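For the sake of transparency, this paper describes our internal protein records without simplification. Because each token names a local backbone shape, the row as a whole describes the fold. One such record is reproduced below, unchanged from the form in which we store it.
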Amino acid sequence: MRAAVNWLAEYVALPSELSARELGEALVRVGLEVERVEAAADGVSGPVVVGRVLSVEELAEFKKPIRFCQVEVGEVEPRGIVCGARNFAAGDLVVAALPGAVLPGPFAISARKTYGRVSDGMLCSARELGLGDDHAGILVLPEGQPGQDALAVLGMREAVLDIAVTPDRSYCLSVRGLAREAAAALDRPFTDVTATVPEPDQAAYPVAVTDTEGCPKFSLRSLNGLDPSRPSPEFVVRRLRASGMRSISLAVDVTNYVMLETGQPLHAYDRSRLQGPIGVRAAVAGEKLTTLDDVSRELDPDDLIITDDRGPIGLAGVMGGASTEISDRTSEVVLEAAYFQPARISRAVRRHRLPSEAAKRFERGVDPEIAAVALQRCVELLVEYGGASAESGYTVLGRAPEIDPIPLPALRPAELAGMPIVTAAVRQRLEQVGCSVSSSDGLFMVTPPSWRPDLVDPADLIEEVVRLEGYDKIPSVLLKSPAGLGWTGEQRLRRQVSQALAYAGFTEVINYPFVSPDWADQFGLPAGDARRGALSLVNPISDAEPQLRTSLLPGLLANASRNVGRGSRDLAIYELGLIYRPAATTGRPPRPGVTQRPSPEELAELQAAIPEQPRHLATVLAGELIRPGWWGAGRNGNWADAIASAQLVARAARVELSVHQVERAPWHPGRCAELRLGEVVVGTAGELHPRVVTAFGLPERTSAMELNLSLLAPPPPAQAPQLSNFPPVLLDLALVVPEDVPAATVLAAVRSGAGELLESVRLFDVYADAERLGAGRKSLAFALKLRAADRTLTIEEATAARDAAVARAADRVGATLRG
């Protein structure tokens, strides 16, 4: 919205010493976005004066029309200027840019020879002065004296505010609204636009509104005897130009002028071209309308249209129709001012891609009570400057929507803003924006004005009070954050596990939780495997990955494949993230509304429909785990390292996992281990199946581990160990067991049998020899460390603990002591 400062000054008593820039700063303080404070003359310098054309000589020797003009510019001798325009004659007042002037562009003016004559300056069009896009002819002035400053005559030296109006402040798309904001910002008196409005008698012109929801209020006035040859008054043209609009004709200029002044869009019909009553209704599918831009548009049933007996004559609130357009022969005029439903206008603008100044205001919401004043202002201007006669009739159908009062605790603005605002100031600020305020027992009942559709709840009112008090007065206070509760147990577990893997040389990766539908086939999962029950997304980001993962391994193996393809063949990576399993409930969950809180039953159904989302941890090892060098040969990672990564996680979580052989896709059937916490299966580790390795292009013997971290209880805070001052007793124990007995089972038996004196036990050797041990048997060697907290162990005590461990192993798995 562009508005001249002197226009604003007609409605607010601006201090005489206040500059335009200071006014802009005041408006910024109350929340408006003032982009520029400028004058149209800012891009023009040097001598640009009023000139009177004394004579015009046609230069017939050239193919296109060229004229050599003698122009009086207030000097002793006239200036000879060459010009190609033909819209002026001798005696007309024009704008002459003399040598030394610089026009917008920049375009420097100098005396130069052209078309066989010396042109001592240039006659200017509106476009060359930066006043608009009209360059059809030279700008002819209605008044002025030769030699007078043309920029002052055109009003180009008047300051103009260029304000970006946000959608919630539609009232600021008018001089009236900006003046009200200036008055509040400067605490100066405001004078509203007023006019003496006649009583409605429904006699202006017959009208019928059938779509009262789309058009709650519709008003008409009529005039006759308009002289279409009369020009628009200079102050109207100047102010339209300052606002970025060009002058068209008196009737159109007046409606645009009043729209900018009051914020109420108006439309003028040529009464002689109307056929029958005016109607307001929804369009019928297939109807067409030719709008003022000479484009035939097919209408939509959602469009709100203006009609007469022939059909559509205007797209309501957006643009009028060509069939009733004001022309240079119009002498009878019907003026329309209406209030249309903003949403309907907004949809029509986007549907037809037809923005307009009227639609910009209607779709944001206009003041439904200003229509009468706007019509009367139009009538007065057309009577005064167009010689028209106003008919006595005044038609009003419908009424504006009612506005309910809003309760506002008087102390709430101060509490929310964090600064002192007395109740008297709250009332004053609300009244400054046009609200009516009544109070009782510390509670204000505030009725917003008709031009503020954005004020709908107490928060809106508080914003008005605070912004007028001054956002700059809100104190900057550093908030005191409450003492933190620290990490939760789950957070501690995740961090400890992640740190342990990182310290061991693993690199963390993070993947999207989406997978392709064929991943389960690539992994060779059996038909009944629960991991095949993946949830499908209604609106996936990628059609290639429309499902939520039930395992972390698809993403991790894709990471490994991508790295191997780029030359990084030695990998140790891990991911910590959620997987998604279908909820136990079936059927569609409820869809509660937004007007009230869902009931406990609805919340329970919604909660039950949420997929189960356990947190998993997975690792992948490929290529060399230890690289060769001067220290010796290297070593590739294998199934044992995958199991070791699970045990590393278990140590970080301070739990102990048991390892049991199992067959489970996508692991190698002979090199796969099930990880248990007590009797609960928490994960799987081992070497991947060769088919899976080949499918992903990974190195041979690539291994992986996946663990359900949600099944591991968060460990309690770590306690410092009790260190004994007494020496340990170190014993080696070799037990012979059947080959099919897992080492983990023997280890558990040794640990439970040795009792409290056992500090640690470690498997350090596996030996098989059919000749010495017997067929189908193997030897497992364990290193035991025994220690007492209060004494040095005797040989007898250590031997008793060892014998107890052997006895327990013999009882559980049939172990014998190797000789």
In short: The mean pLDDT is 92. The longest strand covers residues 48-58.
